[in-house]
Amino acid sequence: MTTYKRILLKLSGESLMGEKQYGIDEKRLAEYAAQIKEIHELGVQIGIVIGGGNIFRGLNGTHKGFDRVKGDQMGMLATVINSLALSSALAATGVKVRVLTAVRMEPIGEFYNKWRAIECMEAGEVVIMPAVTGNPFFTTDPGSSLRGIEIEADVMLKGPRVDGIYTADPEKDPTATKFHDITYDEVLKRGLKVMDLTATCMCKENNLPIIVFDMDTVGNLKRVMQGEEIGTLVHN
After folding, report:
1. For residues 77 and 97, what is the distance between their CA atoms, to the nearest angstrom?
2. Total structural domains in the chain?
3. Which residues of 42-60 are buried (b: 16+ CB within 10 A; e: fewer)?
């Protein structure tokens, strides 16, 4: 039994680097695929959005002379590369997977639409949705919020490199304390960097809860799906 029937899993591109300084760590990729397979076998319908920070960040590129729009388009392509890597890793474990891109690039992936995504998930496929929204000036944070709302997910599971939401950056402030759960209003009031402001407001307005947890610890994804109280729940 699982707590949620359909989820939007938001993965960090930077986490895919694992022990490397750039690109994709094959060990980390395999660990992610194994964890996703675990919950897929429990009957969970899974949509995935993955970042591209291990390859290129559009916003960072603007500080190095790139046009912002072109930089964001490069970032979108980075998310496609990561999505293809994850889809390959999942397929190697026997999981059926579908890549639906927000920008037309057949035969790399089908063009995304909500109904196709839901159809594939209901047919037992894991659906990976790269290229954010297909528009510049949007990061994968509001992109994942949008996809989670569109596919009618029960929850967004956000797996960054930290194990929840803290009062301050735990890597910089040893006195930082972790929230077990927190409301969207409190997140906004405190100015906590859970996601982009746009993404946070979208989830609040559409009543999509978020669980922030450490995806890099093997087994945590299944623990969350089985109702263990790890990470931090963000809700209305």
Report:
1. 19
2. 1
3. eebbbbbbbbbbbbbbbee
CB-based contacts of 190: which residues, under 8 Å, 6+ apart? 167
Quote the CA–CA distance of 37 and 32 in Å, as a whole number. 9
CA dist 44 and 24 (Å) reads 26
User: Is the confidence at residue 198, as pLDDT, over 80?
Assistant: yes
- Angle subtended at Cα 12 by Cα 170 and Cα 147, rounded to the nearest 5 degrees: 120
Q: Per the domain annotation, does 68 fall within a domain?
A: yes
pLDDT per residue as tens digits for the range 18-61: 989 899 999 999 999 999 999 999 999 999 999 999 998 766 65
Please give the pLDDT value at position 60: 66
pTM of the model: 0.94
3-state secondary structure of 131: coil
Mean pLDDT taken over the chain: 93
**Is residue 1 domain-resident?**
no
Look at residues 46, 53, 58 and name the one whose alpha carbon lies nearest to residue 24.
53
* Cβ–Cβ < 8 Å for 215, 160: yes
Residue 212: beta bridge partners?
158, 232
142: containing domain: 6-235
Residues in the chain: 236
Looking only at the bridges linking them, the beta strands covering 45-50 and 6-11 are parallel
Q: Residue written as tokens 């089908």?
A: 110
Tokens for 170?
């735990």
Residue 28's domain is classified under what CATH number?
3.40.1160.10
Quick one: how far is CA 65 from the chain centroid?
Answer: 28
Q: Rounded to 5 degrees, what are φ and ψ at 76? A: -60, -45
Q: Which amino acid type is present at position 50?
A: I
